[in-house]
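SEQUENCE-TO-STRUCTURE ENTRY
===========================

Backbone structure tokens: a row of integers, each naming the local backbone shape at its residue.

Task: work out the structure tokens from the sequence, keeping to the layout shown below.
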Amino acid sequence: EVQLQASGGGLVQPGGSLKLSCAASGFTFTSYVMNWVRQAPGKKSEWVASIATGGSNTVADIVKDRFAISRVNANNTIYLQMNNLQVEDTGVYYCSNSLGRGQGTLVTVSS
């Protein structure tokens, strides 16, 4: 069974930082590009970042100066470091790959 469990969300003030983690299991982690996507309240899902098995990655233009994606293949885990968070970054963050999307973690940016 494919499992993608995101964690690390929470309430943070504008300008703050969070680091999200996604623990993967049930498939060969090193064979898949991994992604972070987010969904703000009342809006469609939005792609945030992707990382290939070797570590090459792309980040959405709207967050590329503030967010960074990484992965540790030995731990079957990907990360999303989010700095200088803004109110518009609020939403549920999910990790995904071509097999599906897991449970998300809520990020709330508010003063």
In short: The chain is about 0% helix and 50% strand.
